[in-house]
Design goal:
There is one protein chain. By secondary structure, the protein is an alpha+beta fold. About 60% of the residues lie in helices and about 15% in strands. The strands form four sheets. Strands 3-2-1-6-5-4 form a six-stranded antiparallel beta sheet, sandwiched between helices. A five-stranded antiparallel beta sheet has the order 8-7-11-10-9. It is elongated.
């Protein structure tokens, strides 16, 4: 079966470009409409089901809200009518003093009539603070003995509200400790000196019985929250899902959104009561909503698959018939040849041949112009070991592409220069690129004049490398030619530029894979000018045989390790340490080479710490123990890595994080100081972010993290504190105070009341009374 499918693939798709295009186009023409119709049908049906369910949920919530609101409104109106009736409108103080028994019997009679006419109320009670007496037709008369409850009721009597609804338990009244709502009204109503409080209690069972009638789905939950987000009652447990109220407030007028709770995705539909601003929230599991659309999905999928299969078969059959004349034409043109047609069956279009030839010539010229630069980049990557893991065939292909011979002996020369020469400075720091350009040109011209083969390479570090390659037989006869060439090159560059020039000369090798080692030898020779002196040709004399040259110090790991320490990235620095230890496997037979490598890595880490401002006492303690001696006494790379992590990585990373934390603290302090000095202006997060040189998003997150308040919350806090100080210490009007703290009058009153619970005028009045 597999062989048949392979033959069909080769026959209809690999060999016949036109046929393949025809089949592809036909399949697209047949498949895409089916897919579009199928997917569109499914999405439309699923959206229609969800929209229908959402509309149904809105209607349900409106019914629940209307039923509960009408009940509360009716009960409130009946209470107001009773309080404005003849009994409570009379002089209750005089009635109590002249007819004590008639006073309490009258109250009991009125309360009994109210509760008999309003079966929804679970209790109706009147509290007389003079005697601490609570009258209820359900529980009878009783005295409130607790001082805490009596003080709470006196505070309730002192507030400005004549009538209000309170949700949840009302612990000041015995038997009101369960969930529900309580209507609290002053007695008499609208009196300047009320003599008592009336309470009408509704148990949450009334609301739950109403909500039960509208539950339709398994797992459906319904919540009623007050305007502050507190739970009034629910059909889904006693806890409101965390974040649900905030999401409802964020969505605003949107009718639905998705919300995850306890591993289940819900479709949430909220509405707000116009009576008391309660939030009625319905949560239906999405899998229940999708139950209706699953059948539609399955039917749609089956129909689409059947149409796709039929369309594909018909397309292949029809395309094959249409292609047959072209197939016969191709067979005639081939004239019995067995070679496969690699291009389009119609062949090259002759009228385009001149244009294509011209384009090819232009591209070839561009490639020829850029080939020297490309060869230089390729040679630089070869020196840096970028192609060490290529196979021999891959590397040979790359060498052929850039016209570099693979079977010749290679030698690497590195040229370094010093700007100061005999106490005089001819060039400036910004002339280094110009010097490198001149050195590379001199080297290239000298290679040509000596009829040698090689490539001049800009190492991008103010140094130039020359990669020379020659025939091995020629190298045996002219052993000293390379050194003479290097000395000649050094003299030319030094005389032309009047600079001290040092050249490092590597050994030689016939293996292209050993080119990075030769490059490393030349670099080491140049670096040794600090010891042996510069302004000369230094030949690398390591004394190692080529069998020992397989190890190469992992310079790229060292660089990455230093960058990780500078960024405070502990995990990346530790990973680089592990990679460094792995690279030591190539020198397993040379323990002294491993120690030398770790000496070099230690020097890089200490250099990084010094650049960051961290001294050695903070790394190795006050004893100032010699770290190089410590490395010499460690016998395994595992212990070496552990010591590096403890003595170097951890202190440096902690130091970097500390500096970052200190910078963040200073930035936030700067923002806070700016806010406290300019709170009376129209401040914005963008302004403060621009002052700090940060993005608004990053400053917002940083401010929230450091202050536990958002930018707007902290600015509001500062402005309210300043307004309180002005209200207490000046005679300014409320509008003047609002202007001085950066608010418009309307917004100031709203924000002040939200923060302090009273209006600015009420706050000043209460403060003057105290």
């Amino acid at each position: 079966m597999r062989k048949i499918l392979t033959n069909l693939w080769k026959r209809f798709f690999r060999r016949k470009t036109i046929f393949r295009n025809m089949v592809t186009l036909s399949l697209f023409a047949a498949i895409i409409p089916v897919l579009v119709v199928g997917i569109g049908s499914y999405l439309y049906s699923a959206s229609a089901v969800q929209s229908e369910v959402n509309q149904s949920n809105v209607r349900i919530l409106n019914n629940v809200s209307s039923t509960i609101d009408s009940t509360l409104d009716r009960l409130q109106n009946n209470a107001i009518q009773m309080l404005l009736g003849s009994f409570f409108s009379s002089n209750l103080v005089e009635l109590k003093s002249t007819n004590y028994t008639g006073f309490y019997s009258g109250i009991s009679r009125e309360l009994s009539a109210l509760i008999n006419g309003n079966k929804e109320a679970s209790d109706v009670a009147v509290y007389v603070p003079d005697e601490g007496y609570l009258i209820s037709p359900i529980y009878g008369g009783r005295r409130i003995e607790g001082m805490g409850e009596r003080e709470a009721l006196l505070k309730e009597l002192a507030v400005d509200d004549q009538l209000k609804w309170v949700s949840g338990p009302y612990p000041s009244i015995p038997s009101y400790n369960d969930n529900g709502v309580t209507l609290v009204a002053k007695l008499p109503l609208l009196a300047k000196q009320p003599m008592g409080l009336m309470f009408i209690r509704i148990h949450e069972e009334l609301f739950q019985n109403i909500m039960k009638r509208f539950i339709s789905y398994e797992g459906e939950q319904m919540f009623i929250l007050d305007e502050k987000g507190a739970l009034v009652t629910s059909m889904g447990g006693n806890d409101v899902p965390h974040g649900l109220f905030d999401r409802v407030a964020q969505k605003g007028s949107e009718q639905r959104f998705q919300f995850a709770f306890k591993g289940t995705e819900y479709m949430v539909t909220p509405i707000t009561s116009s009576f008391n601003k309660w939030q009625y929230i319905n949560m239906v599991p999405i899998d229940q909503l999708n139950a209706k659309s699953n059948g539609i999905k399955l039917i749609t999928l089956v129909i689409v698959l059947i149409c796709l299969v039929l369309g594909a078969l018909i397309t292949l059959w029809g395309t094959r018939r249409v292609y047959r004349p072209i197939q016969n034409l191709v067979a005639y043109v081939k004239d019995g040849q067995t070679d496969e047609v690699e291009t389009d069956e119609v062949g090259f279009v002759h009228k385009r041949w001149a244009e294509l030839s011209s384009t090819a010539n232009d591209m070839q010229q561009q490639l020829s112009d850029q080939l020297p630069l490309i060869r230089e980049i390729f040679a630089l990557q070869l020196l840096q070991g970028r192609f060490l893991y290529y196979s021999e065939d891959q590397l040979a292909s790359m060498l052929r592409r850039y016209n570099v011979p693979a079977d010749k002996e290679s030698i690497v020369i590195v040229i370094a220069f010093d700007l100061q020469s005999e106490g005089k400075v001819r060039f400036q720091e910004n002339d280094r690129e110009l010097i490198v350009f001149a050195v590379k040109n001199i080297a290239s011209e000298l290679i040509q004049s000596h009829e040698m083969e090689g490539i001049g390479i800009n190492l991008l570090n103010d140094q130039v490398a020359v990669w020379l390659y020659r025939d091995p037989l020629q190298a045996e006869d002219d052993e000293s030619d390379i050194k003479q060439f290097a000395e000649r090159l050094r003299l030319l560059v030094s005389d032309y530029l009047h600079l001290q020039v040092t050249i490092g000369l590597s050994g030689k090798s016939e293996q292209i894979s050993e080119l990075p080692e030769l490059y490393e030898e030349a670099l080491l020779a140049v670096r040794s000018r600090i010891i042996v002196g510069g302004n000369q040709v230094i030949v690398h004399t390591s004394g190692k045989s080529h069998s020992d040259m397989h190890y190469r110090y992992p310079l790229e790991i060292e660089t990455h390790f230093e960058n990780s320490l500078q960024l405070g990235d502990r995990d990346e620095a530790v990973r680089m340490m592990d990679e460094f230890a792995k690279s030591m496997g190539a020198a397993i037979q040379k323990p002294e080479l491993i120690q030398m490598s770790y000496y070099r890595l230690l020097t890089a880490a200490i250099r990084t710490a010094y650049m960051l401002g961290l001294d050695t006492a903070q790394l190795f303690g006050e004893s100032n123990e010699d770290p190089y001696l410590h490395i010499r006494n460690i016998s395994t790379t595992y212990e070496l890595n552990a010591w590096f992590k403890e003595q170097l990585v951890e202190p440096i990373v902690a130091y970097v994080h500390g500096k970052q934390h200190q910078e963040h603290e200073q930035l936030i302090a700067k923002v806070v100081r700016y806010m406290e000095e300019n709170y009376h202006f129209d401040l914005s997060l963008d302004q403060c972010a621009q002052i700090c040189g940060l993005s608004p998003q990053y400053l917002s997150k940083l401010f929230k993290k450091k202050k536990d308040l958002s930018f707007i919350e902290y600015l509001t806090k500062v402005r309210i504190e300043k307004s309180i100080e002005l209200l207490r210490t000046t005679d300014l009007s409320v509008s003047d105070v609002a202007e001085r703290v950066g608010y418009q009058m309307k917004n100031f009153i709203r924000v002040f009341k939200k923060q302090m619970g009273v209006t600015p005028g009420q706050f000043r009045g209460s403060d003057e009374e105290n």
